[in-house]
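Colleagues,

Please find the record for the two-part complex below.
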Amino acid sequence: MSDSAIYPQVPEKPSLDGLEEKWGNSWVSKNTYAFDKNCDKNSVYSIDTPPPTVSGSLHVGHVFSYTHTDLIARYQRMVGKKVFYPIGWDDNGLPTERRVQNYFGVRCDPSLAYISNFEPPKEPSDKQIPISRKNFVELCEKLTLEDEKVFESLFQTLGLSIDWNYTYQTIDKRARYVSQKAFLNNLNRGEAYQAEAPTLWDVTFRTAVAQAELEDRERPGAFHKIAFKKEDGSDVFIETTRPELLPSCVALVANPEDDRYKSLFGKTVTTPLFEVEVPVVAHHLADPEKGSGIAMICTFGDVTDVVWWREFNLPTRGLIGWDGKIQNDLPEWIKTDKAIEIFSKIIGKTSHTTREILVEELKKSNQLIGEPKPITHTVKFFEKGDKPLEIVTTRQWYIRNGGRDQNLRKQLLSRGDELSWHPDYMKVRYQNWVEGLNGDWLISRQRFFGVPLPIWYKLDENANPIYDQILIPKENQLPIDPQSDCPEGFSESQRNKPNGFIGDPDVMDTWATSSLTPQIAGSWGIDNKLFNTIFPMDLRPQSHEIIRTWLFSTVVRSHLEENSLPWKNTSISGWILDPDRKKMSKSKGNVVTPIDLLKEYGSDAVRYWAAMGRPGTDTAFDTGQMKIGKRLAVKILNASKFALSLNATLKKDDVKLEVDHALLNKLAQVVEASSKAFEKYDYTKALEVTESFFWFFTDDYLELVKERTYGKQGEESANSAKAALGITIHTLLKLFAPFVPFVSEEVWSWWQKDSVHLQSWPKPEEISANRNIGVENLELVTKVLAEIRKAKTEKQLSMKAEVLDLVINSNNEGIEILKKAEKDLIAAGNIKNLSYKIQTGELKLEIKLP
RNA sequence: GGGCCUAUAGCUCAGUUGGCUAGAGCGCCGCCCUUACAAGGCGGAUGUCGGGGGUUCAAGUCCCUCUGGGCCCACCA
C-alpha cells in the first residue's frame, strides 16, 4: 500500500517517550510563547497568574489549576491573541521567613546594619545569627532561586505555555518598588492611614493580623460562674470562659429587655478578687440565652468587647502584652492591698497559667460557684498560628477597603458585579465578604521580612517618635528600607537621636504586595508602555478560598489606583479531592508528588485529567482518567500515522464524495462547539466534543474509507478520501493542541512546519467545501457498518468474516444515501451480495453470515 | 444563625431554555491474536436520577420541604 515517501518524517513506531523533554526544550529555546510587547493593546490577552509559594512544594492541585489556565492561554493564542502569560514566585511572607531562618541559621534584625558579602555559616548552628533585613532578603533570594528552578522545570514538563521572560518574585526589587509606590499613592490620597486601636494579635508571631487572615477553630473551654458584688452587698453571677481577663473587666452588660437585670442598669458592681467598681450597661448584643445572660466586658476578650468598649466609651484596662503574657507593671486601677497581692502572682504569666491561678483564688474566696462547665466553642486564630488571638491596642497602618465606609463598599460591590466570574456563582462569596467587612484593611505587620513600609518619623527632643510627622521618600528613591536608608535632609547619624528620625520598623502584609500582581507583572511605573498594553488584564485564575484575600485586595488596589477593575474575567478552580471526597492536603499524608505523576502517565495524560475538571468544581484525584488520557495520546499518534501513511492531503478541492463532505461538516460542527465552549471558559466541553469526534473518526470513518484510499474505486474517489483524512488530522491536531500539547506538536512536526501552537484556531468555513451536505450522509452509513459488526460479534465471527448476503430495508431517501457509499460499505464490511428493499419506517438489515 | 455548591449506573461525571425507550468513559461480562494501534478492536449487561410533596399534557430539569456531603460568612460572654 505504501509509496509512503510523501511524509518521510512519520516514524515506524511512534512513541510518547521523551516528548516532554524534546518539545519542552524546543518551546523554551525557540521562545515559542514569547509576548510581543509592541503589539496592539486590543489584540492582547493578559493573565494574572497566581505566584506559587516557593518555600512550599508543588502538589497535584497546582498541576490541576495551572493546567486550566494554560488551556485558556493556548486557546487565546491560537485565536490570534497576543497572550501575556507571565508567572511570579511568591517568596514574600512568613513561610519564606521561617524557611530561610532554618536553612541558614539566621534571623532578621532590622536594627542591624547591612554587611556586604555576608556569608551564612556552612552548617546552621543552634543559635541563629542576627542579620540585617537587606542581608536577609538576599539570602531569601538565594534560597528561593533553587526552589524556583525546580518549579520552573516542573511547569515546563507540564507544558505550561508561560513566557519565562516576564518572571518576577514578590520580594524582588520590582515588587518592592511597586508595593511602596502604591502605598505612598494611597497615603497621598488619604486611603492609607495609621491608627492606635485594638488589634487582633498573634502572640506567637507577635504581629497584628487582618480580618482576612482569621479562621475559626473549635476549642474546648469551660464556663466559670463568678460572683460580682452589687451595691447592696448581694451577688450577681456572670459566666465566662476567660476568667483570666477578670483584672481587665471594665463593665457588665445585659440585654435591655432582660427583666432579671433591668434593676442593675446604671448602677455599679464590684469585681471579685480585684475589687474594681464597674458599671452595668444595657446593650442589644447581649444575649439573654448565653450563660447567665449578663457578661463581663474586658479590654479585650473578643471583638464584641471592642464594640461595647467603643460605644460606651469605657476605659482601656490593657492586661495582655505583645508576648501574650500579663503585663509587668501594676495597673493603676488595681488599688486594694488584697488585689495587689493577687495581681503580683500573675505578672508575667501566660493567660493559661493566669487562669489557673485566678480560678484557685476565686475558689478560695468562694466567688467561683460550682465546678467549671466544660464546653466546646469556636475561637479566632491567625490562619498560620497555633494560639488563640488576643486583642491588643497598638498603632497600625490601614488601607481603606470599604469596611468603614458605605460608599466605598458600594463601589467595591459593583466592581464585583462588573467582573465576569467563571463559574458565576462564585461572585456570591465576594459579595458575602465585602458585605461582612467590619473594619479597614490592616496592612502593617510586626515582622522582619517583607516589603518595609517606606516611611520614617521625626523624633522630638526626647527622641520620641512624632507619628504625625511622616517623612517619605521620593519616587525615584524606591524601593527603600527605612532601617538602612535615610530620609532626605537627614544624615544617618541622626537616626534614633533627639530631633532626628526613626524608620518605621514594620513590613507590609504579604497581601499588600500580592494585591499588586497586575502592576508587578506589568512593570507599572518602570515600563509604563508595557503596563498600559496589558492592563486591565483579561483573566485572574485562582482558587475559591482566597477570594476574600487575593481577589478582593487586588480589586481594592486597582479601584483606588486606576479606578478600574484589574481584570475582566476571573476563573475559580476547584480543589482536588481524595477518592473519599476529602480535600487533599499534606497533613492527611495523601498528597501525590506531581513529578512522579508526570513521569508515570506523561504530561499530556495528566493534563487530560485536569481538563476534565470544570471551573469551580472540586474534582476527584483519579489515575483512571490519566490512563484514559494516555490512551488518547497513543491513539492520536497511531491514527495520525495511519492516516498519513494513506497519503493524506490537504487538497480541499479533491473532496468529492458525500461521505467525505459529511465527515468534514461533522468536524466543522465540532469546531463550532469547541470554540463556543472555550469562549465560555468551558474547556472541558471543548475537549469532550473533540474527543468524541476523534473516536468516531478512527473507529468508523477510517475503517470505512481505508480500502478506498488504495485506489480500488478509482483515483478521484481515493483522492477525495485522502483529502478528508488530511484535513481532519490537520484540524484535530489544532483542536487537541491546548489539551495535549506534546503529542499534538509531535505529530504536527511529522508533516507540517513550525509549531502547532502558533497555528490559527480552525474555522468551520476553512474545513468544509460544501456545508449543504448533511452529516446524516455519513452517520447512516456508519450505522449500517455498526449493525454488520454487531451481527458478526453475535455469531462470534472475526470482523473480517464475509457477509454472504445483505439486504438493506430503508426508505427511498436512506437508500439514496447508502447507494452512494455502497462501495465503501462492501469493502469495509466484506459484503458479497448487497441489495435494497424500499420500505417505509426505519432502517432494517437482513444479514446472512456463514 | 445567614448564605453558596452538590446528590444521576459499581466508580468518575455529562445531561443547554421542562419534551421521544436517561447518556459517556472507566470497571465488569462475552467475543476477536483483524497487516495504524493488545497502551488494541467489536459487542453486551447495569439506574425507583438522595427521600417526600407540588406545578404541568409532560419533571433528572421548575417550586416547597427533609436528609447526606462540601464550602464561605457571622457579635462564639
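Residues 585-589 of chain A have pLDDT under 50 and may be disordered.

Comments are welcome before we finalize the supplementary table.
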